[in-house]
Design a protein that fits this description.
single chain, 369 residues, alpha/beta, Rossmann fold, Dehydroquinate synthase-like, alpha domain, globular, binds nicotinamide-adenine-dinucleotide, binds zinc ion
């Protein structure tokens, strides 16, 4: 392993059923003006709560969010993955009307948590978020940020990236400051996720865990998290009823561990193909992964068989025959996006990956979908 990383972790983690009720108490000490470099506007003690739009009419849940009259409550439409435009607009509006918030809290899935992570950074970094898409481009630490997942699998609660779709790139704001200061993992919150979505997002952690340990960058650290996460996924998707209270607890921790398995490894073929589907056809990350993984038996063998068993067990709808509708130009464009992710191919096939992989092989995988 020639992998040198020195990674930062989430500062504080609160886990357990009912911990959402503690959120107000957890946030209280952070209702102080931001210290450190920031735009020249008044520094407030208010918090911004960004919440998935699913909860907009769930009055009982909204009542439980510890937002006071001075705080900002913003609903995020997660039907579209977050864009640089959304982040810039949110930041500009709040800075203009209210000044600099003390912190931002994201309550929702990967989309909403990424809005909170990117928002935290963009409150203190001037200009458009487009210019910060990439690794270590952010210049100043962001404001305090806290994540509360309401659906599990992406690992966005632990990762060092906030994925944004920009005018040119779909790429994260990736740096140590992206990582949450606080996460609250309450398994009660994921109970209402519809079955298909629960499965697609849950499979993201299964696929993270498989890809982390089936490539050249695999190592004992990644394997430890990955193997535990896979074991928990098997419990959730093969052995237990969804209604079994333990099931949501397992999935929430599996997501966290699947995310950590990647901090010292890398994603592989499935994620590369998924980026093509996302960029060209706007298919969401988790369902795109499922569409791709289903056709990768030649790379991930027994894991793909296991995945297919899980799809069957859960009676999940997995789109098939999509390639019939795709033109050669569409397939070319997706293959181009995927081909240009050398770090994933290097992990999947080693430094000489160009000897075993060309655009034709990538197109072959897309044609199977
Ligand atoms: P999401 O945030 O896109 O939400 C998916 C759907 O689930 C939405 O319709 C939402 O309304 C619904 N939902 C969420 N919680 C619910 C609940 N408790 N009850 C009922 N419905 C609920 O979901 P996701 O799959 O977690 O996230 C995908 C996003 O995460 C993509 O934008 C992707 O780019 C990003 N992502 C980020 C990372 C990272 O490390 N930052 C990793 C992977 C994916
Ligand atoms: Zn993923």
């Amino acid at each position: 392993m020639n992998l040198f990383r020195n990674f930062k972790s989430v500062t504080r983690t609160c886990y357990g059923r009912g911990t959402f009720a503690k959120l107000g108490e957890i946030l209280e000490p952070h209702r102080v003006p931001h210290e450190g470099p920031a735009p020249d506007v008044e520094r407030g003690t208010f918090l911004v709560f960004v919440v998935d739009h699913y909860f907009e009419d769930k009055t009982e849940f909204i009542r439980r969010i510890p937002a006071g009259p001075d705080d900002e409550l913003v609903f995020i439409d997660s039907r579209e993955e977050p864009t640089t435009e959304l982040i810039d607009g949110l930041r500009d509006d709040i800075l203009k009307r209210r000044g600099l918030p003390a912190g931002i809290v994201g309550i929702g899935g990967g989309s909403t948590m990424d809005v909170a992570k990117a928002g935290a950074l963009m409150f203190t970094n001037e200009g458009s978020s487009v210019q910060y898409q990439g690794l270590n481009l952010i210049k100043r630490p962001g404001i305090y940020h806290c994540g509360v997942p309401t659906i599990s699998g992406t690992g966005a609660e632990v990762s060092m990236t906030a994925v944004l779709t920009g005018p040119v790139k779909k790429l994260g704001l990736k740096c140590d400051w992206t990582i949450f200061d606080q996460i609250v993992l309450d398994p009660d919150l994921i109970a209402t996720v519809p079955t298909d979505q629960w499965f697609y997002t849950g499979m993201d952690t299964y696929i993270h865990s498989v890809e982390a340990i089936t490539g050249t960058k695999k190592n004992t650290f990644a394997e430890a998290y990955s193997e535990k996460s896979l074991e928990m996924c098997r419990e959730v998707f093969l052995r237990r009823e969804r209604s079994d209270p333990k099931s949501d607890e397992l999935l929430m921790v599996a997501s966290y561990m699947g995310g950590l398995s990647l901090t010292y490894s890398e994603v592989g073929v499935c994620h590369a193909l998924s980026y093509g589907l996302g960029k060209v056809l706007h298919i969401h990350h988790c369902i795109a992964n499922c569409i791709a993984f289903d056709k990768l038996e030649d790379v991930y063998g027994e894991y793909v068989h296991e995945f297919k068993t899980m799809v069957k067990e859960r009676g999940v709808h997995l789109p098939q025959g999509l390639a019939k509708e795709w033109s050669e130009e569409t397939i070319d464009a997706m293959a181009e996006v995927a081909y240009n992710l050398p770090h994933m191919w290097d992990h999947a096939f080693g430094p000489d990956w160009e000897k075993v992989l060309d655009r034709e092989r990538i197109k072959g995988w897309y044609r199977r979908m």
